[in-house]
Amino acid sequence: MASSVAAVKANCKKQTKCSDHVKELNNVRPKQPFFFLKPTSSIVLPGQGPVVRPKGVNLHYEVELGLVMGKEVKDLDPTDEQGAMDAIDSYFLGIDMSARNIQEEAKKKGLPWSISKGFDTFLPISHPIPKSTIPDPHNALIWLKVNNQVRQHDSTELMLFRIPRLVSDISKVMTLEKGDLILTGTPKGVGPVGTGDVMTAGLEVSGKEVKEASLEVP
Amino acid sequence: MASSVAAVKANCKKQTKCSDHVKELNNVRPKQPFFFLKPTSSIVLPGQGPVVRPKGVNLHYEVELGLVMGKEVKDLDPTDEQGAMDAIDSYFLGIDMSARNIQEEAKKKGLPWSISKGFDTFLPISHPIPKSTIPDPHNALIWLKVNNQVRQHDSTELMLFRIPRLVSDISKVMTLEKGDLILTGTPKGVGPVGTGDVMTAGLEVSGKEVKEASLEVP
Ligand SMILES: [Mg+2]
Ligand SMILES: [Mg+2]
Ligand SMILES: [Mg+2]
């Protein structure tokens, strides 16, 4: 299992299609990628059960492309695109579940985000996606439906900070280790889910669904 | 090695001796213990080298009593003191190194604390301290010196939230696993260290230094 999970906040370009996530969350467009940690105890493996909404929580989904690191990365040069790509072992699709009301209160009060992002079951992930299946990780379509209604559906080309920059920035703070997971940020369309809702999510490359990425979470 | 490190923020009682840490950081006295995660990559084992100050960082020490969890704990009742104590395998002394300027900026902007708390080498820890060595973890003295000058020196009796409450609150968010570490919060006296400074830290029980707790960090 992963040793650490780093997740990037609000990472989408100033484009009509995607900038809405920044607006949705009243975020200021960042000059650098900020990130936070999710505990490994939040991970739900494929088919391993539902996301549990803690009492009083406004539970939001955020579908994201994930990276599984294949080796140690420390202080990576942001221009070393090849180095970043070589350090990735495989991809996954993940849903960065967020207790939005707790997160908003934490933001207001200057408190850490760990509670709002870290409850048990707050990170359903797909099977690993072989690297060769996604030849260009900045040209894949990720989507999420709630009860079969499309809520998120955007290309990873809309990332404000691209993968080499994310890996570099994180590696300048904390050494990435083999098996660490990185969530790369979500496109527009985040919103609430309640009891009984079923989330499905997937990833398309060149118009074809990637089977390993397929997620269904009650 | 630990799978997760949870650290409790500003946890000291309204007493002259200790409340200064809350003032020092302009924190509002909390109604509940808040906590954040440090990555396992921040851990420095005894004798394994210096704390590295990242460029431009106002680096602060925070000496803290640490818990090593001995079993899984999920949704623990806060009144179950025995359950909390039984779940602890051993203790340790740790220094929760903090990039204070980055943390202050994150607080102002409502950003996550992970960068300010998570740089490599930001968690020097001592050897494990056998549980029997600290018969009452709320009655131990922890201290930290910089270049042999005392900077922190207070009893763990000053914790605002005691250990069973901390373990309970964390376990209601994230299931604690065997090997997880918890930092219980620092007493007053936090302050900066620079290049060339040497931190020493220790823990006394009934007026006697506990040898396993002894830390020296260049
Ligand atoms: Mg997210
Ligand atoms: Mg971890
Ligand atoms: Mg601390």
Describe this structure in words.
- Two copies of one chain form a homodimer.
- Chain A has one domain: Alpha-Beta Complex (Fumarylacetoacetate hydrolase, domain 2), CATH 3.90.850.
- In chain A, 50% of the residues are buried.
- In chain A, the strands form four sheets. In chain A, strands 2-1-12-5-6-9 form a six-stranded mixed β-sheet. In chain A, strands 10, 11, 14, 15 and 16 form a five-stranded antiparallel β-sheet that branches. Chain A has a three-stranded antiparallel β-sheet with strand order 7-4-13.
- In chain A, strand 14 and strand 15 form a beta hairpin.
- By secondary structure, chain A is of the alpha+beta class.
- Chain A has five helices and 16 strands.
- The longest helix of chain A is centred in the last third of the chain and has 11 residues, at 163-173.
- Chain A binds chain B through residues 3-4, 6, 9, 28, 34-37, 39-42, 54, 74, 106-115, 118-120, 173-177, and chain B through 3-4, 6, 9, 28, 34-37, 39-42, 54, 74, 106-115, 118-120, 173-177.
- The structure holds magnesium ion (MG) (3 copies).
- One magnesium ion binds at residues 7, 62, 64, 96, 183, 185-186 of chain B.
Topology record:
The structure is a homodimer of 218-residue chains.
Chain A: E1 5-8, H1 16-24, E2 35-38, E3 43-44, E4 59-61, E5 63-69, H2 81-86, E6 88-95, E7 98-99, H3 100-109, H4 114-118, E8 123-124, E9 129-130, E10 141-146, E11 149-155, H5 163-173, E12 181-183, E13 191-192, E14 199-205, E15 208-209, E16 215-217
Parallel strand pairs in A: 1-12, 3-8
Antiparallel strand pairs in A: 1-2, 4-7, 4-13, 5-6, 5-12, 6-9, 10-11, 10-14, 14-15, 14-16
Bound molecules: magnesium ion (3 copies).
Residues 7, 62, 64, 96, 183, 185-186 of chain A line the site of one magnesium ion (MG).
